[in-house]
TrEMBL record:
Mode of membrane association: Multi-pass membrane protein
Transmembrane keyword on record: yes
Keyword S-adenosyl-L-methionine tagged: no
Stretches assigned to the Major facilitator superfamily (MFS) profile domain: 14-459
Entry keyword set: Antibiotic resistance, Cell membrane, Membrane, Transmembrane, Transmembrane helix, Transport
Name of the protein in its database record: MFS transporter
Cross-referenced InterPro entries: EmrB-like, MFS, MFS_dom, MFS_trans_sf
Amino acid sequence: MPDVRLASPQGKWILLTTVLGSSMAMLDSTVVNVALPSIGRDLDASLAALQWTVNAYMVTLAGLILLGGSLGDRYGRRKVFVVGVVWFAAASLLCGFAPSPVVLIAARALQGVGGALLTPGSLALIQASFHPDDRSRAVGVWSGFGGIGAAIGPFLGGWLVTGPGWRWVFLLNVPLALLCVPVALRHVPESSDEKAHGRFDVLGAVLGALALALLTYALIEARGGSVAVPVTAVLGVVAAVAFVHVERHRAEPMLPPGIFASRQFTAVNLVTLCVYAAFGGFFFLTALQLQVVAGYSPLAAGTALLPTTVLMLLFSSRSGALADRTGPRLPLTVGPLLCAVAMLLMLRVGEGADYLTDVLPAVLVMGAGMVTLVAPLTATVLASVDTSRAGLASGINNAAARAAGLLAVAALPLLAGMGPEAYRSAPAFDAAFDRAMPICSAVLVAGAALAFALVRRPAPGCRRPECRTHGNVTAPPLEGERPPG
């Protein structure tokens, strides 16, 4: 039974290690959007290259995150976590010195692999190391510091881009890794799951990531009209069908199809796909809109969205408690509708937009909507399956959110009619942005309708989330398996 106490020196070192590791991935998922205009100018990149800068990371992270957790359970959580941190830092170094968009995109894909190893591992280390009496508090501290990292990410990214340059957005991960790895090796106990056995579903993970990559390519490159686009789209669908086939016939699949026998679990994942597709498109385009059209500096653009994360940090735990009393149907309906209103309010943000009157109202409504829906979303996911599968259910939901976001970043510029050089022209980008926000709003309304029609109050006595404080805007918080004891 794990016996490390939270107040002990070792307990504090474990928390420091896991916070540093998860913060690397958290920061990268929030700061890169702010750096995109500067990356585009410096590397002479097209809009498609900027989309890939975001999506190459998300493709490998979403496709491999479930496999990453399984590797830690089998071969040692500390070992896989450390490998993930070193891998992530090495890929970040390559990003920081990338001489061209192609190299940057390839390095971002490698970053996603590292993120898939360290992201589930940071939570698993806490749950496997701390005494049962301290475990929930340790997870709460970890998730709270992770939320703070998410809050300062856009601000830090804007400051780095404005000051030493966009390359430091990636190079910052290297000193964090140099601090994290020795502490992990010295102070974090190794652990694994003795029940973990059988073959890894590597084929399923590869097919899932391949399907996402091919479909993303088809969506991003569709504007060019190349013959490769329909071919790639067909291959992406084939890979997706093959993924489903493999998962249905594997003895131990990465994504067991049987888990979707729960109608509640299926329903809440459909809601997740809608809301995080809208969020992915919103945060990608808004970071560009504020700089390209409104004329904000990278620092001002990064700071502009800070209230959303602050509201989540302050009120997410209260929102979860309220949803426990009212049931998830109401917050999962109202939350997306509030976010839909926020995206329509963003239509006020144009050339010379004033922050207090044009940007802040939309950001505050967006934050209120995310506060309302994210905690109940996670709680409903956990409550919709057997307690023994709660960690798997959370991982699937997290991967679904990331996949939805990356497909939205690929598809939304196409649907909004953005040309390959749109971000270089304020009028062209502004017009496309005004077409994109109603699309995001409509997707959120669809998510609210699904929640109202399909989500029901869970049975009493189901598992509740341990991560009650969070501020990540790119995916719902992960929940791991709880060790016995």
